[in-house]
Specification:
Elements (H helix, E strand, L loop, with lengths): L12 E3 H8 L3 H9 L7 E3 L2 E5 L2 H13 L4 H6 L11 H30 L9 H17 L10
Antiparallel strand pairs: 1-3, 2-3
């Protein structure tokens, strides 16, 4: 009996463990992305899922999108059925503006921490600038909290 071995990599097909290794993502993330429709397997070899090599740039796009703060649903909206990228430039602009706001907020926080570190007041709570920083922080914290849902009685 002749056993046939095929090197899937040579024909542009990778099994899930190879994709996980090359992308740096765990296999569980690949299965989850497939469940969410972000990527598609091209078949199976035994119990292992197989993917075309062109899944790697899609996975890079997903990682980049998540790093930029896009949700998986937003990223899915950027991929059409052929896994071609269709990015809404207005959506990118809005996300860039969100990142700019976050950068400014973090810069203010950094400056406040540096002030507190160097403040010569005997007690930080007596420092007017520190008091302003605390008021701003408290205001932001309250604004970020979501209102509680009212439970309806059955």
């Amino acid at each position: 009996m002749l056993a046939l071995q095929v090197n899937l990599r040579s024909i542009g097909v990778l099994d899930i463990s190879e994709v996980a290794h090359l992308s740096g993502l765990p296999a569980s993330a690949l299965r989850y992305y497939e469940e969410k429709g972000l990527i598609m397997s091209s078949g199976r070899c035994g119990l292992k899922r197989l993917y075309e090599e062109d899944v790697l740039p899609v996975l890079s796009l997903i990682s980049l999108g998540q790093s930029a703060g896009f949700s998986l649903a937003e990223i899915a909206g950027m991929l059409n059925a052929a896994r071609d990228v269709e990015i809404d430039r207005d959506q990118l602009k809005k996300k860039a503006e969100d990142i700019d706001r976050k950068i400014q907020e973090l810069a203010r926080l950094r400056d406040g921490l540096l002030h507190v570190m160097a403040c010569t007041a005997p007690n930080h709570l007596e420092c007017p600038k520190f008091q302003r920083i605390m008021r701003v922080g408290a205001t932001r914290h309250v604004a970020r909290r979501r209102p509680r849902r009212k439970r309806s009685m059955p």
